[in-house]
């Protein structure tokens, strides 16, 4: 009964949206109007509808609140997701309820790693070819400034308190520390050749950096800023992720084709997960992004040009399923309610939406050119 | 107390290898390549090949800081007429039991024989001769450079994908040109192309450049390519820089050129930037103030393979490292989009082949749809069932 209700309300909602399709593309589903909120369409211009009916925005809110308000029991919550488009030099904003792009923002050159601050008000964007981390105000969708990142920043990690950004600089084998408030570099840590993956333990005490050519996970004490362990993993480690309880650290090796599971307390390699997809050459299986469910029971691993996301039982480490997504899948992000997992697919220029409960890919959303990173705002 | 300190250190520096410093000495034995190139952009620098080895050693040493290993590249540059064996002996005497060899096939085989009693392992970074991986394969030689047949197959797959199946083959008059022509002929057979006619361009000697050279070339090449049967693409087999580079835009019929001119199959090109290659190109250019060529890259890769094996085994014993490289655990990232491994039956590095027009990478083979039961990379070059290699 409940399921039937959901479906019915969704389809009616969809119908109601179709009926109002001349109205501006985006309105908050929970019916709170935000006047003056600039909207940018996928071609980078202001998204007032073609007739220039910006004034209709408020009216649309009223109508939508009135017409659609009765279905407000719909469980899907509208979160905002941000996707970095490596070749498009832009950020696409997605509405996770409508499952569509609502805005595209031009940013610096070659944006890849992105991260939100704690309250989701600012998005930090590694613009590699501009040698800077740009700061995007998520309300106005305007770049408000930049942080000094050192050359060619690719991935970043934010300290749990949100005060420090750790960024990997591929060109000079350093991890750079940036004070977010002062917008100053406050130190650097020499690591292996071509540092890339960055992750920070939930308690903020342990930072991990992976170096692609050295093939190590460098464990760094954030207090002393010293490396406390170097753990060899398989070739070209690109991404690292802690379980939410900090009990395990997973590191993906793109070229080696495995995921290393590290015990952060003992600082040693526990085991490796390898992937085997029938009729797929082993060279094509290139693990990159990793996401854990909050309860730590399940992990999702993006497999790059294998065009699949592996679903792994994070306790037994058994692979449950491979989900077919878009081409060259890079990074992953859950909606905060863990209803959906979004995947950025570099070659097919889209984001696949995985329904987490049913483990089915339910939609593909076109975004900019070569989507790479994806994050979802906390509210 | 002492044991406590040791235990403390072990916790602090949980390095995968013993705390004692392991020193790995690598000799770079390199013959000079001709400066008589058709394009001045291809004239080899004084540190040709060596620069790649130095870059690889620097990369390995960054890793070595964490694993207590050091890597050293010892240069042995040979001028014309220098005694290769004497230079090799000098390297072996210095304790270099890994040799990055930029040598002709003949010299490589002699060096392999000479190095055998010392237990040294050679890494071939320039000789493309198929016979070195077939009838003349040697257990103490690992081949980083691709073979002629791998290069030819890499090009052929793309031409088939383009449906350019009719080839006019023009080869030079040197023995190596015939070897390359053979590779193109067997690629054509393997993938379903047809060599519609073969012609020979005689090397009459003389300098490669003079101030009015282009005037004559413009008249000679149309004559060379006139009255050919219908063809889709002109394939040049010219390993000695005699005419390959002259062919594009000068043919009688307006046809694309590939092989030793035009679209060239190679293991590396200075314009390659995919899969993070830009990082390596940048590092190289910043350090050596020039672009990285295929020999530099192969030497870098050989040094990285040595480094990878030394890191994983915690050893500098050549035989131990060789066995690691041949094993299932070895794979290396080389900015080609896939992991590279060794073909255990002949110690040839599996690798994608880049197709470059000298300015851009046009495509990378293996092409989609060319399938293989073990590795798609084994659609390039001679495969295991046809191998004549008996390693010893």
Can you offer a commentary on this structure?
- The complex is a heterodimer of chains A (379) and B (392).
- With 379 residues, chain A is mainly β.
- Chain A has 2 helices and 28 strands.
- In chain A, the strands form 7 sheets. In chain A, strands 3-2-1-28 form a 4-stranded antiparallel beta sheet, with no helix packed on it. Chain A has a 4-stranded antiparallel beta sheet with strand order 4-5-6-7, with no helix packed on it.
- In chain A, strand 13 and strand 14 form a beta hairpin.
- Chain A is globular.
- Chain B has 392 residues and is α/β, with parallel strands linked by helices.
- Chain B is built from 10 helices and 16 strands.
- A 5-stranded parallel beta sheet of chain B has the order 2-1-3-4-5, sandwiched between helices. A 4-stranded parallel beta sheet of chain B has the order 7-6-8-9, covered by helices on one side. Chain B has a 3-stranded antiparallel beta sheet with strand order 10-15-16, covered by helices on one side.
- In chain B, strand 1, helix 2 and strand 2 form a beta-alpha-beta unit.
- The N terminus of chain B is likely disordered.
- The interface between A and B is medium-sized, with 35 and 29 residues.
Helices and strands in order:
The complex is a heterodimer of chains A (379) and B (392).
Chain A: H1 2-19, H2 56-68, E1 80-85, E2 90-95, E3 100-106, E4 111-116, E5 122-127, E6 132-137, E7 142-148, E8 153-158, E9 164-169, E10 174-179, E11 184-190, E12 195-200, E13 206-211, E14 216-221, E15 226-232, E16 237-242, E17 249-253, E18 258-263, E19 268-274, E20 290-292, E21 298-302, E22 308-313, E23 319-324, E24 329-334, E25 340-345, E26 350-355, E27 360-366, E28 371-376
Antiparallel strand pairs in A: 1-2, 1-28, 2-3, 4-5, 5-6, 6-7, 8-9, 9-10, 10-11, 12-13, 13-14, 14-15, 16-17, 17-18, 18-19, 20-21, 21-22, 22-23, 24-25, 25-26, 26-27
Chain B: H1 2-12, E1 22-31, H2 50-67, E2 69-78, H3 84-93, E3 98-102, H4 105-115, E4 121-124, E5 141-143, H5 148-161, E6 166-172, H6 175-191, E7 194-201, H7 213-224, E8 233-237, E9 257-259, E10 264-266, H8 277-288, H9 294-313, H10 318-326, E11 332-333, E12 339-340, E13 342-343, E14 348-349, E15 353-356, E16 361-365
Helix pairs in contact in B: 2-9, 3-4, 5-6, 9-10
């Amino acid at each position: 009964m409940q399921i039937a209700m959901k479906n019915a309300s969704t389809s009616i909602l969809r119908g109601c949206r179709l009926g109002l399709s001349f109205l501006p593309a985006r309105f908050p589903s929970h019916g709170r109007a935000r006047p003056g909120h600039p909207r940018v369409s996928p071609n980078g211009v202001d998204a007032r509808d073609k007739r220039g009916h910006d004034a209709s925005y408020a009216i649309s809110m009223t109508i939508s609140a009135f017409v659609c308000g009765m279905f407000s029991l719909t469980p899907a919550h509208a979160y905002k997701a941000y996707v970095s488009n490596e070749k498009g030099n832009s950020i696409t904003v997605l509405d996770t309820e409508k499952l569509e792009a609502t805005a595209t923002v031009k940013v610096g050159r070659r944006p890849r790693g992105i991260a939100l601050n704690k309250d989701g008000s600012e998005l930090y964007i590694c613009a590699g070819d501009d040698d800077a981390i740009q700061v995007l105000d998520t309300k106005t969708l305007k770049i408000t400034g930049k942080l000094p990142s050192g050359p060619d920043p690719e991935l970043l990690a934010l300290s749990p308190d949100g005060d420090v950004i750790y960024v990997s600089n591929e060109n000079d084998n350093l991890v750079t520390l940036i004070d977010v408030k002062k917008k100053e570099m406050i130190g650097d840590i020499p690591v292996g050749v071509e540092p890339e993956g960055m992750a920070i333990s939930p308690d903020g005490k342990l930072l991990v950096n992976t170096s692609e050519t050295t093939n190590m996970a460098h464990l760094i004490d954030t207090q002393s800023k010293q490396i406390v362990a170097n753990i060899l993993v398989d070739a070209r480690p690109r991404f690292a992720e802690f379980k939410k309880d900090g009990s395990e650290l997973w590191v993906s090796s793109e070229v080696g084709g495995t995921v290393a599971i590290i015990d952060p307390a003992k600082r040693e390699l526990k085991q490796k997960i390898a992937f085997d997809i029938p009729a797929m050459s082993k060279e094509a299986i290139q693990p990159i992004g990793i996401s854990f469910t909050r309860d730590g029971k399940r992990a999702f691993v993006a497999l790059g040009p294998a065009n699949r996301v592996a679903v792994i039982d994070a306790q037994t480490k058994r692979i449950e399923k491979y989900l077919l997504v878009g081409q060259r899948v890079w990074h992953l992000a859950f909606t905060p309610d863990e209803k959906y997992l979004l995947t950025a697919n570099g070659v097919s220029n889209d984001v696949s939406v995985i329904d987490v409960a049913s483990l089915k890919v339910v939609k593909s959303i076109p975004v900019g050119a070569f989507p790479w990173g994806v994050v979802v705002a906390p509210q | 107390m002492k044991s406590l300190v040791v235990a403390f250190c072990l916790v602090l520096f949980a390095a995968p290898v013993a705390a004692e410093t392991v020193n790995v000495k690598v000799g770079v034995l390199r013959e000079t390549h001709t400066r008589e190139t058709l394009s001045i952009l291809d004239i080899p620098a004084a540190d040709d090949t060596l620069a790649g080895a130095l870059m690889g050693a620097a990369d390995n040493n960054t890793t070595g800081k964490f694993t207590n290993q050091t890597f050293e590249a010892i240069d042995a540059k040979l001028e014309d007429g220098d005694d290769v064996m004497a230079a090799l002996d000098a390297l072996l005497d210095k304790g270099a039991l890994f040799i990055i060899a930029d040598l002709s096939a003949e010299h490589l085989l002699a060096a392999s024989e000479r190095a055998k009693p010392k237990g040294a392992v050679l890494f071939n970074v320039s000789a493309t001769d198929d016979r070195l991986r077939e009838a003349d394969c040697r257990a103490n030689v690992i081949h980083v450079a691709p073979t002629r047949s791998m290069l030819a197959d890499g090009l052929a797959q793309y031409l088939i994908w383009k449906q350019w199946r009719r080839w006019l083959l023009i080869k030079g008059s040197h023995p190596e040109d015939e070897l390359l022509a053979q590779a193109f002929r067997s690629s054509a057979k393997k993938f379903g192309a047809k060599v519609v006619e073969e012609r020979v361009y005689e090397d009459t000697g003389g300098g490669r450049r003079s101030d009015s050279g282009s005037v004559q070339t413009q008249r000679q090449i149309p004559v060379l390519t006139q009255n050919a049967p219908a063809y889709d693409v002109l394939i040049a087999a010219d390993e000695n820089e005699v005419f390959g580079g002259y062919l594009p835009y000068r043919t009688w019929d307006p046809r694309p050129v590939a092989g030793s001119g035009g679209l060239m199959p190679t293991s590396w090109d200075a314009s390659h930037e995919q899969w993070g290659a830009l990082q390596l190109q940048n590092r190289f250019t910043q350090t050596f103030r020039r672009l990285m060529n295929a020999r530099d890259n192969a030497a870098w890769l050989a040094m990285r393979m040595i480094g990878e094996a030394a890191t994983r085994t915690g050893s500098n014993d050549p035989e131990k490292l060789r066995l690691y490289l041949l094993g299932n655990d070895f794979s290396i990232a080389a900015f080609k989009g896939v992991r590279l491994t060794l073909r255990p039956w002949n110690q040839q590095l599996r690798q994608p082949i880049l197709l470059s027009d000298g300015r851009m990478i046009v495509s990378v083979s293996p092409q989609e749809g060319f399938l293989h039961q073990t590795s798609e990379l084994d659609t390039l070059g001679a495969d295991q069932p046809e191998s004549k290699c008996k390693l010893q």
